[in-house]
What we know:
By secondary structure, the chain is α/β, with parallel strands linked by helices. It has a single domain (3-207), classed as DHBP synthase (Alpha-Beta Complex), CATH 3.90.870.10. Helix content is 29%, strand content 20%. The chain is built from six helices and ten strands, in the order E-H-E-E-H-E-H-E-E-H-E-H-E-E-E-H. Strands 1-8-2-3-7-4-6-5-9-10 form a ten-stranded mixed β-sheet, with helices on both faces. The longest helix is centred in the first third of the chain and has 16 residues, at 10-25. It is globular and about 45 Å long.
Amino acid sequence: MADLYDCSDPDARSAGLDAAAAAIGRGELVLLPTDTVYGVAADAFTPDAVTRLLAAKNRGRAMPVPVLIGEASTLAGLVVDVPAVALRLAEEFWPGGLTLVLEHAPSLAWDLGDAEGTVAVRLPDDEVARDLLRRTGPLAVSSANRSGRPAATNAAAAVEQLGARAAVVLDDGPRTGSAASTIVDCTVPAPRVLRVGAVDVDALRAVVPELTD
């Protein structure tokens, strides 16, 4: 079973972040809070770790794993280019519950699933998650639940479903915003909403009027 760290205690939080970063570096899985729900994280650049994440969730490669970043500036190093519409959306809604699908840089040595040259990227509005991301770099992160089961909104629910597959759990209390992130595909001429979630479509359209859903 994974080692659990109570991030409401500053010393335990520091120790937990150290342990989580070390586990990521070894290709292991970490359960962590985000601003939406609890997630399961793996090193985005270690294909075996991403495969382990998919297996833990009982999920196939047809649903590629999104990537979380700790700073908006990291995005430029992951994608071919950042379209103007994506830049406007990121400036308005990051950090927060918006995931942007973009063409990833072909030089990147990762395998997130059958993504057909794209990557789904998000900057979470959660300091525990971002502190870990600043230590590790981009992480492949999916909701901490088995496929077909409800997303985990607290550490106990994440542990109940995936604790046996993870090395470290960062517990930062419950997450009340149970909606997953909204996903927008920015690889098409008119950005398209692929999933409605934490960010309302009307709010998106106020920034990018050409948005389709």
